[in-house]
């Protein structure tokens, strides 16, 4: 069993090595000299005497260099936003090849002086950072949300090239703020009796909306947050209002049925000096009582443009919660009842939860509906 296991591992290694060599040759034939060079080096790390990989490396490396330098020269002649991106990419590839050669003894033996372009890539990154930064400033000056988001991307790119370039970290924060759709959430106002319950509902809703929001450029604010951040210019208002609600409507129902059970021992009789069980049918009137406390309401959700006061969305969401208690009584012979019926007869009607809890309960189905709606609007 051990021999079979070792043979399987060896077979896998051979297949992987063959695949590495084949991938290098395939890349070379397809004109991807960078990938051919890297794959050949990978092959030589595990099998330094592989002549096929050695040949691919020696053939592909100079062509990878020429291809990269041609791309760099062509980029130098261009005057568009991708100019320095191309230069950074190509210099990175050349340096990547050099680093791989240094870390592979056989490759280093074949190519003892791989070309490196550390100064050149540093210069290209600096110019790329400058270009991206300037494009970000230009976009930010338009003063629109869309352009601020574009500026954010440019500033992030500039920072990726040269960390902390000029004041780019501050510009990233500024562009993010100016590119964010700021939505101020108006909590629902109810009677003082239910205000804490309404606040509990809205606070959980806002927290979940913020948690589920995957959009970098959308943010929900409570009035407390807006005041602490000194936010003066929201873009939209999300207005929540319990337009109609009733708490504690009582509905009672009663159902009476005749119960009977046959062949129940009701006593004994003496026959010929011996006692025998006497059987009969027993009956009872069984009444089930059910008391329901019904609470329901409708939440109106409006999205309003803060600049024009135009209503962008207006939806109603309804919810209901029915609390109930059940008890029973009977009149007649208890033996006509089954164990469950007896248990119910021994129970008493339960007291309902406080009205504030009933308020929260009817809002639970509304909660999920509103979250789905908000996700569809701000996706």
CATH class of the largest domain: Alpha Beta
Q: What is the SS-derived class? A: alpha/beta
CATH architecture of the largest domain: 2-Layer Sandwich
Main pleated-sheet profile: 5 strands, mixed
* Shape category: elongated
Strand content: 25-35%
Are there runs of 5+ residues with pLDDT below 50, and where? 1-18
Strand order of the largest sheet: 2-1-3-4-5
- Terminal CA distance: 57 Å
Question: How many β-strand stretches?
Answer: 5
Radius of gyration: 39 Å
Q: Would you list the SSEs in sequence order as H and E?
A: HHHHHHHHEHEHEEEHH
Question: Could you characterize what this model shows?
Answer:
The chain is an alpha/beta fold and 379 residues long. It folds into three domains: 2-116, no CATH class; 128-179, no CATH class; 195-256 and 287-377, Double Stranded RNA Binding Domain (2-Layer Sandwich). The chain has helices spanning 2-29, 33-46, 51-77, 83-102, 105-110, 118-140, 145-161, 168-178, 195-212, 223-228, 339-345, 355-377, and strands spanning 181-186, 218-221, 236-271, 274-305, 311-332. It has a five-stranded mixed β-sheet, sandwiched between helices. A hairpin with a 5-residue loop joins β4 (274-305) and β5. α7 runs antiparallel to α8. The radius of gyration is 39 Å and the shape is elongated.
